[in-house]
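Ticket #4471: structure export looks truncated?
Reporter: QA, pipeline team
Priority: medium

Steps to reproduce: submit the single chain below to the structure queue and open the exported record.
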Amino acid sequence: MTASVKDQELVRSLRKRLGLTQEKFAHLLGTTARTISRWERGQSRCEKSWRQKLANLQQVVDKLADCCDEIPVFLSMPLPEFNDFPPTDLLGSDWSTVKLLDWIQRWGEGDLA
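Actual output as written to the record:
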């Protein structure tokens, strides 16, 4: 099954925006470099859960762009506010992504007490 152009563009644009190699992007997401390569080349299709995770990652990266210089570092950093899970572990559900986006907003505004 081949990937949609939208899947290919999302994977490639997120990876490039973060300035990561396929290997480092795969590690960040918890998959393999081969999978990232296949998605980018359209040789395989992202499953629905991966498309959701990538869409959530895009929202988080957009939100972080205003307040964080080292987005890849932040995304892999354990956050005490989230039981020491890194942000990438929170992208699997819309609920946890909304909580993370809210936290990033407050963090960016210096409103975490």
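Status: closed, not a bug. The export was complete when the record was re-opened. Leaving a note from the reviewer for reference: The chain has one domain: 5-108.
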